[in-house]
Amino acid sequence: xxxxxxxxxxxxxxxxxxxxxxFPTEQSLAxxxxxxxxxxxxxxxxxxxxxxxxxxxxxxxDQDGVSTLSRAQASIEALVAKVSDMKGxxxxxxxxxxxxxxxxxxxxxxxxxxxxxxxxxxxxxxxVSGADTLx
Length: 135
Known about the structure:
Blueprint: H1 14-22, H2 32-134
């Protein structure tokens, strides 16, 4: 926030501020006790303001904390739901793969049996042909 207060400037010099603003002449040193009490009053006022701001922020943090916690819980519940959904889909995919592999195994077994049957028929045909030749 922009400010015209010399205390807020980045190049603030304490000694020159005291010499020029608070005690520009030697006679102004007579009012030292007044300046000290004014500064102490300012410190007390600023401390009260800071305490008030801290209390306000603490209340807001509690409220923010509750809302953040509830959002986190909602996110966790959504995540649990997604994980459950994924688990269900994975089980369905696993069942589909099991069905496909069972069908493939059955086809492999049928192929093997068919190959053995054809080979056996070929051997039988050769045996019959050989027996006919021998007769």
